[in-house]
Amino acid sequence: MLENLVSNAIKYTPAEGSVDVRFSRANGTVRIEVSDTGIGIPAQARPKLFTEFFRAENAKSVEDIGTGLGLAIVKEIAAQLGGRIFVESEEGAGTIFVVHLPIAATPTS
Fold first, then answer.
1. CA–CA separation, 16 vs 37, rounded Å?
2. Which has the least CB within 10 A, 4, 26, 35, 65?
3. The whole model's pTM is what?
4. Which has the closest alpha carbon to 66: 3, 11, 6?
C-alpha cells in the first residue's frame, strides 16, 4: 500500500518537486499521509480514481505504462485492514492521499 502511494507520488512529481510521508495518531487510528507537489488529479478523474483499470489522462501523458490497478488495490488493502483512504488534489498543484488504519489493541495480561 505505502509502496504504491509513494512510488506514484515520485513518478508524477517533477525533479524539483517534493514528496512527503507523515504518520500520526488521529481518533483511534494511525493516519498516514502521502503528499506531493506533482501533476495533481483532474477534478473529473477523482470519482473514478480507485476504480480498477482507470488512469487519469494527465497521468498517461507522463507515464504511458501502467495497469490502473494500483489505487484500487490500495483501497482494498485499507478496507481489509478496517481502514479507509481519502484523496485531495488539484490539477497542477499536487496530491495528498490520507489513509486511516485502526490502531491495534494491546493485549492485556
1. 9
2. 65
3. 0.87
4. 11
Domain range summary for the chain, segments of one domain joined by +: 2-102
Rounded Cα distance, 72 and 76, in Å: 6
Burial code (b: 16+ CB inside 10 Å, e: under 16) for 67-103 equals ebebbbebbebbeeeebebeeebebeebbbbbbbbee
Pairwise CA distance, residues 8 & 87, whole Å: 13
Determine the average pLDDT of the residues in 69-74: 94
What kind of architecture, by CATH, is found in domain 2-102? 2-Layer Sandwich (3.30)
Residue pair 74/4 in contact (Cβ under 8 Å)? The answer is yes
Partners of 22 in the beta sheet?
Answer: 33
Cα(103)–Cα(28) distance, integer angstroms: 6
Q: Grid coordinates representing 2?
A: 505505502
